[in-house]
C-alpha cells in the first residue's frame, strides 16, 4: 500500500511537507505505469496552475513520464484545467497530469489525473494508479529523463492548448450577442489560471469586462483559498457592487469551477447556478438529454427532469463518478455541489469558463437580470435554500467517532430543523431526506481532512437549525 492516497480528484498535499519533488515523481511513475498498460508509447498532456513552484513540479512530472517512454505535451504556461482536458482530445493522448490543488489553501499543491476523454479517472483507475506508485525507499524505481534532453530527443513537446480550445468553444456558443449586449461584467479570477480568458473571448464589442485578482499571487490575498464561495469571493462581489455590474463571473484557482454574482453583487449559490444552467439548456436552448448530479447537489434538477421529461442520474460526490456517468448516458449536463459543471459536446470535465459564458448568454437571450432568471426558475420548481459548514478534523479518532455516530443514526427517530426524516441514504456519506423534500448531507472530504455538513430545503427559516442539528448528529459542537 502506498503512503500517497488518491482522493476525489487525485492527490493533494502540503508543499514541502508531503508534497515534495520526490513524492510527485513517485506519483508520476504510478501514472506512467497506468498509461503504459494501455500503450507503452502513448502520449500524455502535462499542465499546471499558478501555485508556488507549480511549473517546476510539472517539469518534474514530464521528466518521469518521458523517462518511461511516453510522449509528453507540456503546456508552456499556466493553463485552465478544462483547456488541458480538451487538449487531451486534440492530441489523441491517453490522459493528462495537471499540477494543481484547485480550490485548496495556498500552502497546498496537487496532482490531478485525467483519462483519454479528458475527464476524471474513475475510482478503479485511481486505485490502479495508486497501487503502481513505488515505495519511498525505492528511488531507483522512478525513471527520469532530464527535461532538456527529453526536449532535444522530441519526447517532450511544448503544447499551447489555447487555440484549439477557443476554436472548439466557438462551436458550443455564439458569444457575439454577449459581446454586443453592452453589459458590465466583473470577473474575479481568484488569482488563478482563468485570468484574461473571458476578457479575450468577449473582447471587441460593447460589453465591458473588468478583471480582479488577475495577477499571479500564490498566497491568494483577500481570500482564505481560491474556492468560489463566500467569504472567498466577498472582495470580488464588492467590486461588482461598486461598479454597478450586471453580473460577477467567478473562476476558481484552476478555472474549472464557476461562481456567479447577481446585479446587486450578491452571491448566487452553486446549487442555484446548477439549476439555472439546466433550465437554460432545457428551456432556452431547447436541448434534451439526461442530467447527471451528485447526491450533494440540488433537488431542483429532479423537478426539472420531471417537468421536461428527461432522466436524472444520481452519483457519488466527485467528477470521478460524474464523468463516467456523463459518457455512459450521453448526458446533457452534469455537475456537483462544488460549482463544477460539464456539458454535452465538450469534454466530460468541469469548465468554469464555459459555464460563465452560458450564464451570460442566458441573460442576453432573455433580457433578464440574474435575479429575474432565478425568479423564473423558482416559478417552475419552487424556491430552494442551501448552506454548508466545513469543520476541520483533528485526527482519525475524531473522524471515527463521527462515523460511528452517523452509522448509528436512525432516521425514524430523527427530526432536523423541525422536519421529520423519512430516509437515510449512505451511497457517499450520510444523506438524510426530510418530509418537505429537503435534505441534510454529512460527508468526509475526499481531498482534505474536513467533515462537511450541507443542507438544501424549501424552508428558508430552517436552514441554520438543520445545519446545527447535523453538526450535533456528527458530534461536533
Strand and helix map with partners:
Layout: E1 11-14, H1 21-36, E2 43-48, H2 54-67, E3 71-74, H3 81-90, E4 95-99, E5 108-114, H4 123-131, H5 147-152, E6 156-158, H6 162-172, H7 176-179, E7 184-188, H8 197-201, E8 208-212, H9 234-243, E9 247-251, E10 258-261, E11 267-268, H10 270-284, E12 291-294, H11 300-308, E13 312-315, H12 319-329, E14 333-335, E15 341-343, H13 352-366, H14 370-381, E16 385-392, H15 396-408, E17 415-416, E18 419-425, E19 430-434, E20 439-444, E21 450-457, H16 463-473
Parallel strand pairs: 2-3, 2-4, 3-6, 7-8, 7-9, 12-13, 12-14
Antiparallel strand pairs: 1-5, 4-5, 9-10, 10-11, 14-15, 16-21, 17-18, 18-19, 19-20, 20-21
Helix pairs in contact: 1-2, 1-4, 10-11, 10-13
Polypeptide structure, described:
The protein is of the alpha/beta class. The protein folds into 3 domains: 11-164, Alpha-D-Glucose-1,6-Bisphosphate, subunit A, domain 3 (Alpha-D-Glucose-1,6-Bisphosphate, Chain A, domain 3); 173-381, 3-Layer(aba) Sandwich (Alpha-D-Glucose-1,6-Bisphosphate, Chain A, domain 3); 385-473, Alpha-D-phosphohexomutase, C-terminal domain (TATA-Binding Protein, 2-Layer Sandwich). The chain is built from 16 helices and 21 strands. The protein has helices at residues 21-36, 54-67, 81-90, 123-131, 147-152, 162-172, 176-179, 197-201, 234-243, 270-284, 300-308, 319-329, 352-366, 370-381, 396-408, 463-473; strands at 11-14, 43-48, 71-74, 95-99, 108-114, 156-158, 184-188, 208-212, 247-251, 258-261, 267-268, 291-294, 312-315, 333-335, 341-343, 385-392, 415-416, 419-425, 430-434, 439-444, 450-457. It has a 6-stranded mixed sheet, sandwiched between helices. Strand 7 (184-188), helix 8 and strand 8 form a beta-alpha-beta unit. The mean pLDDT is 96.
